[in-house]
Amino acid sequence: MKKYLFTAALFSFTTLFNAQIGINTSAPKATLDVEAPKDPLTGTIDNSKHIGLKAPSLTRAQLTENTAVYNIDQVGTLVYISDISGGNMLGQRTYINSNGYYYFDGEFWRKMMDMNRNTTLFKAFKAGSWNLITLTGGWNKVSFEVADKQMGAASLLNAQGEYVVPSDGVYRIKYEFRIQGVNANLLSKSYLGLIKNGGTIPIEDKQMDSVTLSLNLGIINLDLADVPVSGTIMDTVLELNTGDRISTVFKTGAVSLGLLRNKQVSIYIYKISDL
Known about the structure:
Number of strands: 19
Distance between the termini: 63 Å
Radius of gyration: 29 Å
Helix content: under 10%
Structural class: mainly beta
Strand content: 35-45%
Number of helices: 2
Largest sheet: 6 strands, antiparallel
Order of helices and strands: HEEEHEEEEEEEEEEEEEEEE
């Protein structure tokens, strides 16, 4: 008798294990098929119910406290982070910087991006008298601050004033440097550049163009030698990986950095394509 009961139980378990499961449907069309709840009499959707599929919701603090080991077996796991005021962004949580849905890719929790907005976009502007951080090789780093941000998430900028790439892809970077009050001839050997991951040699650079303003009075042209404006725009595209850090740099020619008082710098960067 026990043998027959065991065989029946095993058969039932095997049938259940191999079956497709349907919720609100008796004819599932996939491993798990969830349909909206329907009125049993009319077959129409029951609009009095909360319709939708809800992933586990937890705060970043709760995920930080979770001691379970996530590895290759958990690839594709989905959670909703409802609060980021606690916890940390260490290890697998490196990219949990805002509320939203995250999936585990085998190494990190990645945000499921809103397809209607580009969350990689960052635009910033600096003006006035500010210092350049001297690097080796004559290059000087322009560090942006959160207060300089005009568009984008503050989390895209780290404490060192670098743009932190949020996801793999091809990015467009436009970097403009303008100086007023310095003779343009002194800037003939000056360059703009982009540095990646704290290096000292730019991955791309461009010699600075020099322009002097003039005033056209209809009869004569007067060069405004006392207020020359020099400016250059670097506009490029780069393949970047998640976590790469991008810095804007400037290299002067014969002119002393001490003369570069009235400076204006702007940058915008955003992903235009996946790799």
